[in-house]
Amino acid sequence: MSALFIKSPNFTQGRKGFKPIAIVIHIMEGTLDGTDSWFGSRSSNVSAHYGIGKNGELHQYVKEEDTAWHAGRVDHPSWKLIKPAEDEAGMYINPNYYTIGIEHEGSEDTDWTEEMYATSSDLIAAIAQRWDITLDRDHVVGHHEIYSLKDCPGTKVDINRLIAQAGGTPPAVPEWVVIKTGFTGKATTKNNVNIRRDPSTRMAPLASVPPGIQLAYDGYTEVGQSIDGNSKWYYTDEGNWFWSGAMK
Ligand SMILES: [Zn+2]
């Protein structure tokens, strides 16, 4: 697939010995034109490898071999494959070195166009092929899974659909769970909240989120494990679960 190359000055040559292991999905909070000039301006100090317009147009700003500046900050990451720093506890290796970033036109609460899904999934498939990346939910992530203080890419994008359309394997829903989908929303954590693979506490949690953090959900089940008489668990589009009783 062909991309219009609009070189950004904001990148690091090479990848400090790393190679891309995952693709990060972003929303522009703006237009493709605006992103062209924002990434083209040295003073913005940011970039991504690609930008996709609502009409499916594809722009490239940084070569995949080089490091774009799209996901360098880390806060309470829920992404399983993030690389911890070897020498500093609680710190991480800058995810820019081992990810490829794709921006999409629009804002966090506007619907994605069919053209955006088509171009983005084609691009994801091509990137996965080039870098031997497994197409599943661990390797295609939303920006906020790395930097929880941001909502990017918002609640409208269906990352599992991108993965499926790119020929990958989105997370399977446990057979014993009846998910009520289409109930997207956000809830704020009341206590420390564990993020889990199942709507139950039978396996070790994937991550723990401190109080006061907003979590987005895609649906829920009323037949998860009952805790204090409450068996309602929220389902995230990452394919994970958190218990409703721990939310405000
Ligand atoms: Zn982002």
From TrEMBL:
Record keyword Hydrolase present: yes
Pfam families noted in UniProt: Amidase_2
Protein name: N-acetylmuramoyl-L-alanine amidase
Keywords: Cell wall biogenesis/degradation, Hydrolase
Catalytic activity: Hydrolyzes the link between N-acetylmuramoyl residues and L-amino acid residues in certain cell-wall glycopeptides
EC number(s) recorded for this UniProt protein: 3.5.1.28
Enzyme kind, highest EC tier: hydrolase
GO terms of biological process kind: cell wall organization; peptidoglycan catabolic process; peptidoglycan turnover
Residues covered by the N-acetylmuramoyl-L-alanine amidase domain: 8-154
GO molecular function, one term: N-acetylmuramoyl-L-alanine amidase activity
UniProt KW ATP-binding keyword: no
InterPro entries: Amidase/PGRP_sf (IPR036505), Amidase_domain (IPR002502), NAMLAA_amidase_2 (IPR051206)
